[in-house]
Specification:
CATH class: Mainly Alpha
Shape: globular
Organism: Halostagnicola larsenii XH-48
Protein name: DUF7344 domain-containing protein
InterPro entries: DUF7344 (IPR055768)
CATH architecture: Orthogonal Bundle
Number of strands: 3
Largest sheet: 3 strands, antiparallel
CATH topology: Arc Repressor Mutant, subunit A
Structural class: mainly alpha
Oligomer: single chain
Length: about 110
């Protein structure tokens, strides 16, 4: 994967948050990911995120960010279980990636 493609994939903070969480968790429900990402965006605990904010985040994930990352083979979304899984290709393409900071540091080298 070229640097340009990697930068484009990670140009949106929600995609960065999603991948960072999945590198830690491997697989998680859309609802949990939505709460955690909304919490990061609002500096609230996941349980304190306003429902409207949570809904906007989940809608953006399901209609934009997850399909975009899936097109590159980085994540998989199971519509029946509403579960997002990190694909093996993500670790192969970003083997050094465990946190956002480490990812961007490695691209700067």
């Amino acid at each position: 994967m070229s640097r340009e493609t990697a930068y484009r994939l990670l140009s949106k903070s929600r995609r960065r948050h999603l991948l960072t969480l999945l590198f830690e968790l491997e697989e998680e429900s859309l609802e949990t990911l939505g709460r955690k990402i909304a919490a990061r965006e609002t500096d609230e605990s996941p349980s304190d995120v306003p429902e409207r904010t949570y809904t906007r985040v989940v809608t953006a994930l399901i209609h934009c960010h997850i399909p975009y990352l899936a097109d590159y083979g980085l994540v998989d979304y199971d519509r029946e279980t509403r579960t997002v899984t990190l694909e093996t290709a993500a670790r192969e393409r970003f083997p050094f990636q465990t946190t956002e900071e480490q990812f961007f540091t490695s691209l700067a080298d």
